[in-house]
Design brief:
The chain is an alpha/beta fold. The protein has 13 helices and 19 strands. It has helices at 40-55, 63-71, 80-101, 105-108, 128-140, 190-208, 224-234, 253-260, 278-282, 298-311, 326-338, 352-357, 383-387, and strands at 3-11, 17-24, 29-33, 117-125, 146-150, 178-179, 185-188, 214-217, 241-243, 265-267, 288-289, 315-318, 344-346, 358-360, 363-365, 368-370, 379-381, 394-395, 398-401. The strands form 5 sheets. Strands 4-5-8-9-10-11-12-13 form an 8-stranded parallel barrel, surrounded by 4 helices. A 3-stranded antiparallel sheet has the order 1-2-3. Strand 4, helix 5 (128-140) and strand 5 (146-150) form a beta-alpha-beta unit. The chain binds D-gluconic acid and magnesium ion. Residues 217, 243-244, 269 line the site of magnesium ion. It comes from Streptomyces hoynatensis. Residues 128-264 form the Mandelate racemase/muconate lactonizing enzyme C-terminal domain. This is D-galactonate dehydratase family protein. One of its GO terms (molecular function) is magnesium ion binding.
Length: 409
């Protein structure tokens, strides 16, 4: 099974996606997701210029060897661009291997450990009534776990909060991401946020009762002591997790938060290597690993990372926003089904237009996702539909404090 071609496809059915398609001499194809929100073309060029030529003629079945060849062989290790490129190759090779075996990928990873993967959706509102409506709308869609994000009094717009009411069409401020040559800028005030959020969770629990799993994303905006205070303030509302409380690169920050609160902690969507987690896991400073298969070197690397997490009793909570393509999402679902230490899966739902380009077979029933039993990853790329949506620059917003200082998020 020699690799005959490796092509990159950039398409933008509402938001930008980078896909790698590997074809073998005997005609099998595999897909890999290489989408890095706001830096898409850097990964596309890395793959096209520096990776695709190395793949031609290689044995498509040698997945571990190819991973090590691209990781160790490049000398320059880690980083989001490199690891997204390696991830795309890895996913495509697993897709091919599973298709050759006539099995869904999860079977090659050890088979199913559960009926399906519990998914959480993103509810949000500019104020509490809008938020409660959005939670109801998500429950109607079948979600059994909900991420809660809210507007903050005094701030015009907040990332992750839809700018129109539930059912108003637009789901999310930057979904699709802001299109244009420059990122939008938002104003942020952490003290206003900390004053507001506990009351919002109180209202949500009062309306929906104690059972519904609730999650919250801090988008890396707090200092460790602020995050410790928020975690403590949210304890009465029994969160499933508090995500990305502090900037991700500072692993030691989690020590301080952990000393002060029993609210479970999740982090890692901006991480790209197991080495980003060593302190967090060995000192048991987190409860959930948030990495995406797409940004962490693919199925091979993610499986090793999650196995290591399992040693410390830490569970998975893989990143699944709409800037992970349906290919990356499918790869996550096969892992979700197979690993033992599954926690939860983020599932934002792609737009109908995206699903015209990427034909998926995964299912969502009674709050559980299943990757389906289609051989391989179970996603096909409609190249004609993809060609109809050319790349257009789109960026995540930049965050500034009220005095204009650039802030973490
Ligand atoms: C999440 C995230 C996303 C990211 C986005 C970045 O938890 O889903 O924080 O909203 O910001 O995926 O590209
Ligand atoms: Mg997040």
């Amino acid at each position: 099974m020699k690799i005959q071609s490796a092509e990159t496809i950039v398409t933008s059915p509402g938001r930008n996606f980078v896909t790698l398609r590997i074809t073998t001499e005997d005609g099998l194809t595999g897909l890999g997701d290489a989408t890095l929100n706001g830096r898409e073309l850097a990964v596309e060029a890395y793959l096209r210029e520096h990776v695709a030529p190395l793949l031609l003629g290689r044995d498509a079945g040698r997945i571990e060897d190819t991973w090590q060849y691209l990781y160790r062989g490049a000398y320059w290790r880690r980083g989001p661009v490199t690891m997204a490129a390696i991830a795309a190759v890895d996913m495509a090779l697993w897709d091919i291997k599973a298709k050759a075996a006539g099995m869904p990928l999860y079977q090659l990873l050890g088979g199913a450990s559960r009926r399906g993967a519990l998914a959480y959706g993103h509810a949000s509102g500019r104020d509490v009534p809008e938020l409660l409506d959005s939670i109801r709308a998500h429950l109607d869609l079948g979600y059994r776990a909900i991420r809660v994000q809210t507007g903050i009094p005094g701030l015009d717009s907040v990332y992750g909060v839809a700018s129109s009411p539930a059912g108003g069409g637009e789901r999310y401020d930057y979904e699709p991401a802001q299109r244009g040559a420059l990122p939008a800028e938002e104003t942020w005030d952490t003290r206003a946020y900390l004053r507001h959020v506990p009351g919002v969770f109180e209202a949500v629990r009062a309306e929906f009762g104690p059972e519904l799993p609730l999650l919250h994303d801090g988008h890396h905006r707090m200092t460790p002591i602020q995050a410790a205070r928020l975690g403590k303030a949210l304890e009465p509302y029994d969160l499933f997790w508090l995500e990305d409380a502090t900037p991700g690169e500072d692993q030691a920050a989690l020590r301080l938060i952990r000393q002060h609160t029993t609210t479970p902690l999740a982090i890692g969507e901006v991480f790209n290597s197991v080495h980003d987690y060593t302190t967090l896991l060995s000192e048991r400073l987190i409860d959930y690993v948030r990495s995406a298969v797409t940004h962490t070197g693919g199925v091979t690397a993610m499986k090793k990372l999650l196995d290591l997490a399992g040693v410390y009793g830490v569970k998975s909570g893989m990143h699944g926003p709409t800037d992970i393509s349906p290919v990356g999402m499918a790869a996550a679902l096969h892992l979700d089904l197979a690993i033992h230490n599954f926690g939860i899966q983020e599932y934002m739902r792609h737009s109908p237009r995206t699903l015209e380009v990427f034909e998926t077979s995964y299912t969502f029933e009674e709050g559980l996702l299943h990757p389906s039993d289609t051989p391989g990853l179970g996603v096909t790329l409609n190249t004609e539909a993809a060609a109809a949506f050319p790349y257009s620059a789109a960026y995540l917003p930049v965050n500034r404090l009220t005095d204009g200082t650039v802030h973490d998020w």
